[in-house]
Write a structure and sequence with these properties.
The chain is of the alpha/beta class. The chain has a five-stranded parallel β-sheet, with helices on both faces. Helix 6 links the parallel strand 4 and strand 5. Helix 3 packs parallel to helix 4. The longest helix has 15 residues. It is globular and about 55 Å long. About 30% of the residues are buried.
Amino acid sequence: MGKSPSETGSANVAPLFFFPLQLPGDYQIIRHAPGGNLFRIVEAVIGSFARHAPADARLLFKVHPIDNGLSRWPSRISDSAQRLGVADRVFLADGGDTDALIAQSAGIVTVNSTVGLTALYAAKPVIALGAAVYDVPGLTSQEPLARFWHAPAPPDPALLDRFLRALAATTQVRGGFIGEEAIATGVKTVSARLLEAERLPVSFRKDRSTKHFRYETELLAPID
């Protein structure tokens, strides 16, 4: 891999795409991502970037804050980037300010990380490769990943506002994990929510009987 974008001194010259890594064993990956294999997805994204992204574009991966190092991301990403001929344009950060990286990015590529929602709130283009609650037409890209590298579109502000209001009303409760008062409040509000009827109208619910991932074919195709 090449030097980090901040070391090149060209952060404002070439487009930077940001991929916040998740934990390979996370349920969000195993059950709600194409193939359930984050390592394969990352390699496929690097392959797509090598084949389709503008020649001056850069791709930055960021290790998850609680990754224990067993995923061996530095060697995995470096080996893939080297083999695919983009070692000088693919980078890996272990630490750093996620909000600042989002702000510098031309687009965010994620499986279904909550960083995607943060990026939408920052009015940044996002593509969700797996199943994500915020993967909604008008918010995230619905185009192939190959096109996203060239024409990432930001979310619709009005739709995003409505979505965030609906998300808060249907999924959020008061409380926290630190401090007795926050925990007690959380226990009370979560218990009450669990006993409520489903808040989401039936017409808005997704079919859970079958799994379909929009990018499965694109991501799981053999890499040359």
